[in-house]
């Protein structure tokens, strides 16, 4: 039993590490704000969860409609955030680190 628990914990650690890498890549490459990445992650968790609004076991392929809808809404939300960030960046808004304290701009 200890070996099974150890294997499950190692598998979970690997999955969390891979998830962190994917999130980091998405935020770096596509400039998706953290809210969009969280929305995509929550949609992914919903897809993996056994609890569904329309269960596939009862409705068959029709039960996949809510999964596709949730994933579609999350992807559209993330894309809209990325586009808005690009428009703001192109217009001169700086998304660099926040500066604390008084600044000496002249």
Q: What does this molecule look like?
A:
By secondary structure, the chain is mainly alpha-helical. Helices cover 70% and strands 0% of the residues. It contains four helices and no strands.
List the topology elements:
Blueprint: H1 2-29, H2 34-48, H3 56-59, H4 64-90
Write a brief structural summary.
With 106 residues, this protein is an all-alpha fold.
Helix percentage: 55-70%
**Percent strand:** under 5%
Q: Would you tell me the structural class of the helices and strands?
A: mainly alpha
Termini gap: 68 Å
Number of helices: 4
Main sheet specs: none
Gyration radius over CA: 20 Å
Average pLDDT taken over every residue: 82
Provide the low-confidence segments as ranges.
Answer: none
- Which term fits the overall shape? flat
* String of helices and strands: HHHH
Quaternary status: single chain
How many beta-strand elements? 0
């Amino acid at each position: 039993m200890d070996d099974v628990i150890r294997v499950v914990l190692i598998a979970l650690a690997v999955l969390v590490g891979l998830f962190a890498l994917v999130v980091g890549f998405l935020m770096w490459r596509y400039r998706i704000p953290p809210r969009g990445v969280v929305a995509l992650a929550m949609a992914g968790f919903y897809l993996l969860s056994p609890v569904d609004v329309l269960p596939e076991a009862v409705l068959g392929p029709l039960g996949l409609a809510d999964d596709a809808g949730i994933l579609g809404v999350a992807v559209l939300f993330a894309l809209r955030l990325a586009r808005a960030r690009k428009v703001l960046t192109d217009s001169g808004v700086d998304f660099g680190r926040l500066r604390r304290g008084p600044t000496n701009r002249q």
